[in-house]
Amino acid sequence: MTATRQPPAKQLLHLVFGGELKSLASAEFVSTDALDIVGIYPNYAEAYKAWKAAAQRTVDNAHVRYFIVHMHRLLDPEVSGPPRS
Prior knowledge:
The chain has helices at residues 44-57, 71-75, 77-80; strands at residues 14-20, 36-41, 64-70. It is an alpha+beta fold.
């Protein structure tokens, strides 16, 4: 019996970054020069792990927030479909 080869998973890039917000009611940063760029990851699961670790490191500062950006949606919106609200 031969094993069927699975095609490699499609690379769906995600950016994880964060920083101190001016207000908890917005996503405007105190300083864009001080943003923490955690990294770019090949899928959401890896990005989520990095996001969670970064968020845990800053849990004592309520004004620091981290975000996951679906870069694949920006790079190729027709393939990724419309953004979900």
